Each structure stands twice: as structure tokens, then as C-alpha cells.
Model the fold of this input.
Amino acid sequence: MSLSETTIAAIATAIVPAQGSVGIVRLSGVEAVAIARKLFHASSQPWESHRILYGYVRHPETHQVVDEALLLLMLAPRSYTREDVVEFHCHGGIMPVQQVLQLCLEQGAQLAQPGEFTLRAFLNGRLDLTQAESITDLVGARSPQAAQTALAGIQGKLAQPIRQLRATCLDILADVEARIDFEEDLPPLDEAEIQTRLEQLLADVTHMLTTADRGELLRTGLKVAIVGRPNVGKSSLLNAWSRSDRAIVTDLPGTTRDVVESQLVVGGIPIQVLDTAGIRDTEDKVEKIGVERSRLAAQNADLVLLTIDAQVGWTGADQEIYEQVSDRPLILVINKIDLVQPSPASPHPTPHTLHPTVHTAAALNQGIDALETAILKTVQSGTLQAANLDIAINQRQAAALTRAKAALEQVKGTIGDRLPLDFWTIDLRSAIQALGEILGEDVTESVLDRIFSRFCIGK
Done:
């Protein structure tokens, strides 16, 4: 049975006991309105598209009232899926929406798969594939910057340049094929002009590929581990940074026994901060487990904040920890500067010249702005730039763009080798196909399954 012949239903809002004030059950398909008429009683109100009805959801056989609710009708094609869509706006919680959903299923609707509403919107031409992927990015956005980038994708700001690239490739292909088919009737092909257009195409594709890492950073965030010896102020640093008492702070070494996590946003980047147990040799079994977890957290982190005590300076123990994490991107945090003279003791040379250094007094909430600035500079020093991001491609789109770039470079090589025009068309078609995959114009069913399986149910 095709999608157009089925009606799907799902709960479209989060189900949290005693938390949500409204719960929505959504239906889409040819039987959506018929099912709603069997279940919803709205006295004499007219059933018109884009009109909200007030009434009761009743069991169709026992006529028992299940919930007092609102009903929203959105008839095709003026709906999210371009099919008839009905939404029951019920009381929140668990039971009302679960009971209404069960009644819809009993009346012939099928339980929607993850992303199936958006899949129908794509298949019915309501969205292209970049817009569909941006929708799931918006739902999962963990920072305002990530949300704005996703919203730009929904509005077509990613699809538009891809379409333009593909259109230019199609124009070049048309010119080449015209010379193949009607060589005697047309003037010779302007190879210099073709080369110029290919150079611009390659420059545009390369520019778009630079947003892949930035987009991944906005979507997944940055994992930052605070590591160091016991009692250097790691937990105080976390508390000052997160403006909360996430971690227990005492003067006793070894207070932190496990990894403590906090979620922050810095410069539009979601950051997962991990306060780890002090790294040292210990016979305490519980603390030993915490130390091993600290080492693992440091190895898995995107960025390490190696924290030392300004009162003590750089010690042999600091050097040992440094050697364990020196292969990671690292910022040196010299804490407790409020307790020392301007030049703290340093029994061993510090790696100041190798890594950015920040001075903090976490107990007094000092140095946090400088720390955030250093983190952003570290991020921006490579290919990643999170700020002022209009578009950001994902891994699937980056893979397709990479194939398109390789095909366009092959076209340039073919022209340079003075090969016949037929050879030009092979790689031009490959580039066009790769660009079409990004938009969903040339995409397999398996790719669609993989994309929409990442959606939540009801979207």
C-alpha cells in the first residue's frame, strides 16, 4: 500500500506526567477527517479547513467522553504534508493523548514511523531534502545560533545556492551536448568561458564545504573536560562558569569522585563541560575509579582545560597529567591567582608557549570571560568558525558536495587533456547527480530511510 493510501497518526508533543498542559495527536491522510468525525463531537460548528473546533472526544461505540479538546482541520493541499491533516489538542499528560491515539488506531489509522509526517511533506513536494533535514536540526537545536542556522535551512537558504550550482552545471552540459549533436550548425564552444564557469563552481562548492565542520559543531556541541591534580579548583571553576553549585567544593583533596557534567552555551556553541576527579595515584578504590574516568573523559574531549594551582606552580604531577593530554586541543588554566603574588613559584617549566593560557580566581568568579574568549579563539583558530553562520551543511550533504567537487575537477582535467566533448559530459552528469542528491531530486529509498529514521515520532 502506498503512502497516499494510508492514514497515519502519532502523538506530536512530549509526554511528561504533570508537566505538559497540552498534548497533540496528529493524523495525516485520506481518512484523517473521517476518523475525526467518528471521534469528535462539536455540536453545530462547521467543519472548515483551518478552523478550530471545540468539543469532546468520545468513544464511537460506548459514547464515553475521553477528553474535552480542540480540533484543528487543515485540508489538502494547505497542510504540512499536503494531505488532509487533523490535530486533536487534548489536555496534557499521559492518559488523554494515549487514549485519543488508541481510538484513532482502532478506526483504521496506522502508527506513524519516525519522521513520517515530514517524509510525506518531502514526497508531496512541500519540502526539499535540505529543508526536511533542517527541521530535525531545529527540533534538536541546543543553542540560539544552532536554531537560527536550522531556520535558515528551512527557509531555503541552503537549497537556493545548491540549486544555482546545479542549474549552472546543467547549462554547461546543455552547451556541450548541443555541440555534440549539432556541431555543424553551432559556433565552436568557448572553452575559456567554460573554464571560468567551472572555476567559479569549484570556488562556491569549496566555500560551502567549509561550513561542514561549523555545522557539526553547532549541532553536536563541544565537549570540554576540566582536568588536573586534586584540589586545584576544578570544581570551583565549573561552579563559577555554570553559575551554580553543580560540584561539591571543599579544601580536602579527592572530593570529586566522579565526572560532573554541566551544559553551557558559549558564543552560540553548546558546550558540555565535564568536571573530573583529580588525577593522582591513590589506593582508595572509589577514587581510583574516578581517576580512570577522568583520564577517559580527557581522551574523549574535544578540548581539555588543564588546571593548575597558582600557589604551587607547575609541578611534576602537572607534567605527568600534561603528557597524558598533550595530544588533545588544550588550554592551560592557572587558577587561584588571588592567593599569590604576581609571579607564582614554578618548580618546573610550564608549557605556556605551546598552549593558550588563562588566569582565573574561580572562587571569586574571576577570569571566566577570559576563559570563554580563549575557548572561542581555539575553536576559530582552525577551520571551525561558529559565529555569523548563515548555512551549515551536514555530513550527508558534505559527502555529496565532495563528490560534486571531484567531478568538476575531473571536467577541468578532461578539458586540459584535450579529450573529446563526450568525456566532458560524463563528469558533468556526475556533478549534477551529486548536487541533486542534496536536494532530494536524485536520492535512493535507503538514503531516505536513513535520514528520516533520525526524526522523532510525530514530526
DSSP finds 15 helices and 13 strands in the chain. The mean pLDDT is 83.
